[in-house]
Structures are given as structure tokens and as C-alpha cells.
Amino acid sequence: MRPVAFLQHERTQRPGFLLDYLNEAGIPSVIFNPEDGEDVPRSARDFSGLVLLGSEHSVNDPLAWIADEQKLVRDAMDADIPVLGHCFGAQLMAKSLGATVCRNAWANIGWSRLRVTPPARALFGASEIVTFNWHYDTFGIPPGAQRTLFGAHCLNKGFAIGKHLAFQCHLEVTEEIVREWCDDASAELQAATGPAAQGADDIIRHLRGTLPALHRVARRVYEQWAAGLTRPPVAHYHGGW
Asked: pTM, whole model, 2 decimals?
């Protein structure tokens, strides 16, 4: 089958648990790093699926690679190639579909309990989940999409439209990734304020107790998203070869 394309924008914002899942499932993948100067693929049809990861940029920044990624997202959706976005990636999906991305009222950093909308409970297998968050912006729900997740301090935490899933949270994090983010952003964490911002000590304290449940939810979500990946047709033997 054609590989899943990852668009990675920061060294530390890696595919993490999602890449582990794809490898276990025998699904090939390839990683592109547009912010490092790599070209954004021109056609989504070279891939079975498209994944957009996080970034320290805003999707509203006037950067060529951000505009190119928006074109790629629209191309994938036009071709019914599944798209999956985490954080910045979800915001980029929303903007590509005509929704507004703007500053949220509060920084969302750390662990938080999110509500699952009734139509999305089959996707998550629960009415509430605990996820990891690190964002300052928020998106509107695009036309034709359904909200899947909402939080106390950020209304729109996820949406679905057809085969495509967008999450304003991080299902893909591993223990190594979370610890690395906290180490690299110690000054940022000290400066963050508000009811939805946790410090490094709180984040790390709950890491090992919370991550297994997050990974169970992530695996369920990723399995359902991967079920829609474009796969080659199976040849059937009818005799006479």
C-alpha cells in the first residue's frame, strides 16, 4: 500500500505513539519536514493517508509551507484520502475548510478531562477522556463537520468530517515526548497562567498514571482512522492462470 505521509514541523513534535501503532499494524509511512526546507508534497494521491503534527507556529502565519499544506489537505479531502490532525495540524485542517483559527481565552497546557459528544462516543469508547494539551489557539468547527470533543476552557477540542479527524489535543505523546517538552519549555511553563495551564511538576506527576489510559483511547481512535486508509485491491483467483 502507499505510505501514510507525516508532516512534522518541530524536532520534538514527533509522531510518537501514532508511528508505533502504524509500525505494529504493518502500515508504511514517510515523514516530511517542511519547516526545515523540505518541499510539501504536491499531491495527496501518492499516499494512503495524511497526518499533520504540532508546531510552535500559528496557522495564520504568512509562511509558504503553511499555505502549501493547506492545499495538500484540500487535495486529500477531495480525493477522499483520510487526514488526521493533532493540535496545529487540527487547526490547519479547520482553516483549510474555511473555519476561523484565533487565540483561545486561556492557554491549555497539561492534562485535562474532555467531554465526548454523543455522536463521537463510538470513536472514543467513552463519554469522557483525559488528554494532553499544549496550545494557545482554537478553531471553529468547519461547515459539514461535527464536534467530537469539548473542554471546560476550550469549547472545540476535536471535529470529524467523513474519514477525517482533527484533535486540539495530543493523543500521540509518549512519556519521552512529554518529558522533553517540559524540559525544553521550562520558561514557557513558568510564564503560562490561567485555569487550564499546569506547571512541569504537575504534568510529570500525573504522567505515568495517565498515559496508559490515553494510549488505550489513542489506539482505538487510530484503528478506526486507519480502517479508512486507501489500500490496494486484492486480486482474486478465478482459475485459468
From this structure: 0.94
